[in-house]
Amino acid sequence: MENITVLTPLLAYFDPGSGSLVLQAVVGGAAGLVVFAKYLWTTAAPRLFRGTKEPRDMDQF
Amino acid sequence: MSVTLNYESGSYRDRDGRVFVDGDGGICRALSARALNEWNAVRQTRFFREALASQRVVPTETMSDSPAVTAAARDGDWAGVLRHELVPFVSYPYEWSFGMLRDAALLHLELLEQALAEDITLKDGTAYNVQWFGARPVFIDVASFERHIPGQAWAGYRQFCQTFLYPLMLQAHKNIPFQPWLRGCLDGITPQECRNLMSFRDFFRRGVAAHVWLHAKLQASPTVEASDSSRALSSSGFSKGLILANVAGLKRLIRGLRWKAARSVWSEYGAANGYAPEDSQKKEAFVRRAVQSRRWGLVWDLGCNTGAYSRIAAENANLVVAMDADYLAVERLYQSLRATPVAGGAPILPLVNNLVDPSVGLGWRGAERKSLVNRGRPDLTLCLALIHHLVIGHGVPLREFLEWLADLRTDLVIEFVSKTDPMVQRLLRGRRDNYVDYEPEIFERQLSELFDVVHTESLASGARRLYFAKARSAS
What we know:
Distance between the termini of chain B: 32 Å
Shape of chain A: flat
Largest interface: A-B, 35 and 52 residues
CATH class of the largest domain in chain B: Alpha Beta
Helix content of chain B: 40-55%
Number of helices of chain A: 2
Number of helices of chain B: 19
CATH superfamily of the largest domain in chain B: Vaccinia Virus protein VP39
Structural class of chain B: alpha/beta
Number of strands of chain B: 16
Structural class of chain A: mainly alpha
Number of strands of chain A: 0
Radius of gyration of chain A: 16 Å
Oligomer: heterodimer
Strand content of chain A: under 5%
Strand content of chain B: 15-25%
């Protein structure tokens, strides 16, 4: 059996939109809200605790 | 025999597959090694075999040894080739009626739901995945099916919203036809645009708060957009059940959408067209005689209205494309075809099309979506009770309209409605009658210059005359 790990990134040939992916947890009922809460905890919380000032990555300019 | 890959101009986005036309004019799909692997997994599933058997998915076969396979391996480094049954006449979502887009959306969702039960998903969600065999929607992009990766959300959800859900909501909640919006932007209506179109009242309608308002909010969130949501969701416990719950919700939502259309100008025309019963019978007999004169391939019925003459044409043709500029007329024709399919005759494809504002080449290089004429020229064209709308209603010079028809190299059944007819009188009301070219003698002379008129007949009222004319062969 092929080893497809749960962390394999989505292989779309177009931009599926991060917000559109996250919304699918929200509209999925109670179980989805738990996933959404975990998602917020892992993505938004670290940014909030870091404060609003993020170091600027000069390489992108 | 050597074959050169002639790629379809609308098939370029997916690097794992491209559609091309083979040497016999057949529609083939070249697949990468990855896509071929997916196809081999998908075609063995029960849901897919059933979808093929019930013709909800376009009949498709894997080609093992043919010039097309050799050419695909040589020219594009493709690993495999599929061959699809030919779509009789390609159409686009901006030419469909409300009910057509709704049924295409439901087909999409039902296939996704059944596929997920066997761990297959759809990697996109665009309305352009669907075509029509008559009034029956068929899913054509078989390469969109692939194995579901646990923890992954449906990548095509946004496309589905933009090309199916929001256009349907726009028409159902705001009574705004979606066709010009979809024609104006092939990617459809974005969540932000849809949110801006909705009123406070609409916010409380089913699905608007989540699929529109929240969708737009999340898309505009820098935190969400900057994150690797796919990976983060997966590690947060996202499961296939959430996609199934979303799909079930979308199905209920879309089934509940209704277009409460007001009466339109032409959709009532069949019931109140001013024809005396004997004129109607005479007209039907005239059209039937022309239709029965030979077997026709493609028939266009321009200004089809209720489709009464499309049904007559279907008696002796391979396909009838019934077109009208009136959204409601096309919707009613579609619903009547669903309720009373053509028994034993050709399929009828109803389409919204305005001859003075027609479907043109759109998208990349202006060739991704083809103009109407570039999708198949008709062998017979019906122009019944139409010419006065173009010449008087829209100011199209009579000669130019006839020349356009002649350029199609089509045989023609055309009705000339003179200025004494009550419908023409209605059109002339409030206008200065400077349509000096719109006279029966001028029409007849110009028609004879461009076509070979084989049969003509006046209706009893005397204000209308029917012509059956043959195309001149190209010199």
